[in-house]
Amino acid sequence: MLEKFAHKTDEELFVYLKSKDRTVSRQAFDEIYSRYANKIYTYCRKVLNSSNMSEDIFQDIFIKFYESVQKIDEMSNVQGYLIRIARNLCLNEKTRGKVVKVPFDESHYEYNDTKIENNEIADILHTSLDALPEDFREVIVMKEFMDMSYKDIAFALDVTVSVVRIRIFRGKQKLREIMTPYIDDIQNEN
Amino acid sequence: MKEHEFLKPDEKLTAFIDGELSKEELGTLFYELAQNPDMQEEFNQLMLIKNTFRNKQMAAPDFLKEKILTKVGLATPTLIERIFSPAFYSAIFAGSWLRIASVSSLVLLIGLMIFSKFNDSNSNSEMRQILLTSESSAPQYPIMSSQSEDETVSTNSANNSSTSRRVNSQSGLAASNRNAVVIPVQDDLSDELAQLLNNDNLSAKESNFRAIDNSHPYNANYFDFGGANSYGVVQSPNYTSLGRFLSNVSLSFKKFGAYSFPNFDLAASNEPIMNNFSIGANYKVGKNHSVGFAVGQENFMMQFDQQEGEIIYDYKQSYNSTWYAGTYKYVFAEIGNSGVIPEFNLLMGASNVGPLGKLGGGIGYMISDNFVVNVGLDYSAMFYPSRGDWKNGKWFMTQKLGYSIGIGASL
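Predict the joint structure of the above. Result:
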């Protein structure tokens, strides 16, 4: 019997993903992919800052995730598990020094605001984000780009919620410090 | 979130913008915010950051998904793969015994058509094996065929078959050494026999044996159950694909060899492709239980008497029958981790001669997760009526005891 997976929880999808029936497994995979693909891809792009490398790592993440699912019996936090895999693979790549930074590519972002002022602020913000220390940048990417809760971020990073809260606070304070002069200039020009 | 009670005001502000502050904490935050212009400025800047980042999630390129699916083996299946997918069968069979019965009937019908056609092509050679001869001590009687009128008399010397005919009489001219039926006959039996020899119409019509005459209404495969020999079915303990139809289906192929009761040296006149073989399909209905069906062909030795007028004929024949049967199989637990699995199987079905049953036991050895080889002992019994008359004919039984070897494959 074909199942409708759109309303299934992550935990239920995990069970279906382990099915020997390839059709069922495929449907479960499709649903999980639709929920988290953009988040994971965004994470890769923001952490690696490389389009080509991000695509390779992105594939590896889902392949490793699928393989892992077949080996374990229970998964309480699919998103967190995916992020953990993504984080490990991305950090490995960075450690190996394979990552070649490329200029920020605006075409991958869905700008809803056509005002030049806001686009300029966005450019500055993204540049500022790249300038943040890794620990701060990572949690802000997870919070702002991936819309994860402090709790989910804590799970993915294997730290406490307090650590996440402090890192986000300090990261945003850094962003404010970097951005404030630019924002003032833009606002004064207009 | 209790820990937020100890946050500094600007830390609390960040948590509030991120939606991580409880309702109780909001009251104190709003009070501080209203009293502190610097905090208001910070709030505006944090909201600007928040709104700028919002909706900036990046879309993964579409081609990446297909690449991933291919690598993990979940790529879009081909048409053939769809047809043979468990989901397809699950969709067909889900909750509908009527549909199961319909599909089973269709499969059975196709099987019957195939084997009926096959039997027709061999009927002549088989029928010639039904012979009536005299005992060695008696005069050489003609050999009568039950086939047709134009295929009547041949001589015993012209035929290697050992089928015999005996005649009981008070004079003891040809006393049967079996069957206590004694019929009075005329004193001058020689004359009768002479007439018998010269009678062109002697060729067996309905008065001769017709037990295997497919044209007879009671013999024409009316009692086909679509049967099965369940030997060689894989029952892997590691088989975890429960609830999927095909995951529980297994196919078996089995070879028979047996000693017959009665037994006599009478070669089979034909060797069909599936002689002493069976093919079956089983469906696992429980941890240890499987049911299914099988089709097979076997030689059965038959010996029976039949009275015609004042004469009792003793018939012997080695008949190759095609049978169809339903099967049940019980699989015991694996012996240790040896891969050896004892099993018991029961088969009930029918052939174009009469109903038959089989009782077997043996062991299977798993050579892989999907293949098993089997050896075992089989007892078979088949009942058949004289003249093929299920209502009025006299019933006889033939039995076999022998070995079986087989191979099974799970899907």
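The longest strand of chain B covers residues 311-331.
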